[in-house]
Each structure stands twice: as structure tokens, then as C-alpha cells.
């Protein structure tokens, strides 16, 4: 079998334009999987490019940060949408629950991807901003007379 110039199973050959297009899509809020699929690349191929090329890894990191910020902004838009109503003018509870699930899923995902920015605020003693404070507590047992 003749060599084609790329390792078996590597997917597409790298081009700056293809990496930039995948990163552009990610920066617009698409997932790595959907951005790669739209461009005919495997996510593992793109990750390999990031591992081999620091400039692509940096571009990908910036795109992920931009995409997360965009997804966060979209949460407000989703929450402010006018709910669907039935023929009697009543709000469809199924639609409301579907939107709530969408918002909760995005919030959870963002909190896992970037916990310091999008996670729940918790104070953990012992970190540099909140060092542990030790107080000495003594217990003295006194015998009754």
C-alpha cells in the first residue's frame, strides 16, 4: 500500500483556513463536534492539530472563551422569550419546562467548562483569598469539690 503523506486515520490534512473556520464556528457557540462535522473533520483530528501546533491551540482557546460568553448571553435571550400560548391564550407548560431544561443544561455546562467564571460562588477556607484561621480551644475539666 502506498503512503499518502498522512498517518492512517488522521482525517484531513491541516490547513490554516480549515483550522480558522472550525475555530470561527466554535467562537459562534457551536460545539467542537458540530463545527468539525460541518467542515468534514473529525474532532480527534482537530485536537491533534491543537497538540501539534501551539498557534492553533491558542486560537481554539480564544474561540472557546468567546463561544462560552456568547452562550451565556443567549441564556438571557432564551429566558426573555415570550412563552407559547394555546388557542385559549394560556401559556403552554410543556414549552416552559422545555426552555427551563435548556437554560439549566447550558448553565450546568458553562459551570463545568469554566467554574471560576460561570460556577456557583463558594468560599473554601484555605485558598489564597480566604486562608485558614486557627483558633485554639482548650477544655479544662474541673473536679467538683
Helices, strands, pairings?
Blueprint: H1 16-27, H2 32-38, H3 43-52, H4 54-79, H5 93-113, H6 115-118
Helix pairs in contact: 1-2, 1-4, 3-4, 4-5
Question: Could you characterize what this model shows?
Answer:
With 145 residues, the chain is mainly α. It has a single domain (16-118), classed as Homeodomain-like (Arc Repressor Mutant, subunit A). It contains six helices and no strands. It has helices at 16-27, 32-38, 43-52, 54-79, 93-113, 115-118. Helix 1 packs across helix 2 (32-38). It is flat, with a radius of gyration of 25 Å. The model is unreliable at 1-9 (pLDDT under 50).
Quaternary structure type: single chain
Distance between the ends = 99 Å
- Give the overall form: flat
Total number of distinct structural domains: 1
Radius of gyration: 25 Å
Low-confidence stretches: 1-9
Total of helices: 6
Percent of residues in helical segments?
Answer: 55-70%
**CATH homologous superfamily identity:** Homeodomain-like
Short description:
The protein is mainly α and 145 residues long. The chain is 55% helix and 0% strand.
Tags for this model:
Arc Repressor Mutant, subunit A, flat, mainly alpha, 145 residues
Amino acid at each position: 500500500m502506498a503512503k499518502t503523506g498522512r498517518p492512517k486515520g488522521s482525517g484531513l490534512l491541516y490547513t490554516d483556513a480549515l483550522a480558522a473556520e472550525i475555530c470561527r464556528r466554535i467562537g459562534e457557540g457551536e460545539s467542537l463536534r458540530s463545527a468539525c462535522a460541518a467542515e468534514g473533520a473529525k474532532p480527534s483530528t482537530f485536537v491533534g492539530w491543537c497538540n501539534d501546533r501551539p498557534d492553533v491551540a491558542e486560537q481554539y482557546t480564544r474561540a472557546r472563551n468567546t463561544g462560552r460568553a456568547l452562550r451565556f448571553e443567549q441564556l438571557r435571550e432564551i429566558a426573555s422569550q415570550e412563552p407559547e400560548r394555546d388557542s385559549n391564550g394560556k401559556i403552554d407548560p410543556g414549552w416552559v419546562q422545555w426552555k427551563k431544561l435548556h437554560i439549566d443544561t447550558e448553565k450546568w455546562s458553562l459551570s463545568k467548562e469554566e467554574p471560576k467564571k460561570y460556577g456557583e460562588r463558594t468560599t473554601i477556607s484555605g485558598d489564597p483569598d480566604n486562608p485558614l484561621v486557627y483558633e485554639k480551644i482548650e477544655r479544662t475539666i474541673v473536679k467538683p469539690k
